[in-house]
Amino acid sequence: MKTLAVSALGFLLLTTSAPAQWVVYDPAVHTQQILDEAQDIAKYVQMIDNQIQQINTLTSQLNELQKYNRAFGNPAALVNIAGVDGLVSDLTKATVGQTIEQLQSNSRGTDAMTYNANGLYHNIGVTFTVSSGGQIQREEGIYRENAAVQHAVLNYTNVFDEVLKRRRTLKSDIAGTTEKLQSATTASEVQKLTGVLIGLNADLAATDKEIDQAASLAVVQDVENRNDADKQTKARTEEQQAEFSQALTNYSSTFRPMVEPPIFPDSN
């Protein structure tokens, strides 16, 4: 009996000192853990769904951009536009026409003496023959104004010829650009070709103004010549009047009228 009691006491002590091996199960806590996990999974699923929607939206936007590029084109890729080279070349070309100062300073009387306008006028020559048979050298200075008008006309002719060449080139570029505009496939290409076409037409109109400017120089020089001729006529008239007045004064001082009656000798 004593042995049994000792055995029972030992078993009790052993049971008390050993770690607990039983798992405590709480249904409420387990249920809450399941609910929390389910909520986390739902949030993750929602996040994935949002990401999928964002991807679909970006894909749709990318497709729209590709459609836009196909419709409007990339302006940076359009570097070889028809008509641009011809327009830039014509705009940077030096002008042929001269200023009125250049025309006047380059005029020489001998140019007027030997000018016949391709046989249209009579060449007066640099000398002429008098009745006695002698040769007289013409005065170069008085013909410079005539040479200035001739140079202005020649300047007009040169400008007109140059403008005709440029007009042919510009009209050819306009025709080529118009054809390209008709076959353009994107809005960017249409806009660039339209800008070039506007520039070509403006340049064509500007070339016509160069002809008008050259013609106006000839008119201005002719008007200036007429004004100078009138000035010279007035100057000669004034000088002649002054000389006549001076001659009368000199005559009056030299030949004074007699104030006393003449005395004749008495015949007796």
Task: Give an overview in words.
It is built from seven helices and two strands. 12% of the residues are buried. A two-stranded antiparallel sheet has the order 1-2. The chain folds into two domains: 38-72; 78-252, Methane Monooxygenase Hydroxylase, Chain G, domain 1 (Up-down Bundle). The chain is mainly alpha-helical and 268 residues long. The longest helix is centred in the last third of the chain and has 68 residues, at 187-254.
Summarize this entry quickly:
The chain has 268 residues and is an all-alpha fold.
Write the layout of secondary structure elements.
Elements: H1 2-17, H2 27-72, H3 84-91, H4 100-105, H5 109-113, E1 127-129, E2 135-137, H6 144-182, H7 187-254
Antiparallel strand pairs: 1-2
Helix pairs in contact: 3-7, 6-7
Q: Helicity, in percent?
A: over 70%
Q: What is the first-to-last residue Cα distance?
A: 235 Å
Structural class: mainly alpha
CATH topology name of the largest domain, in short, is Methane Monooxygenase Hydroxylase, Chain G, domain 1
Domain count: 2
Residue-averaged pLDDT, rounded? 78
Radius of gyration: 56 Å
List unreliable stretches of 5+ residues.
Answer: 12-18
Write the H/E string, N to C. Answer: HHHHHEEHH
Q: Given the C-alpha coordinates, what overall shape results?
A: rod-shaped
Into which percentage range does the β-strand content fall? under 5%
Strand order of the largest sheet: 1-2
What is the correct CATH architecture of the largest domain? Up-down Bundle
- How many individual β-strands? 2
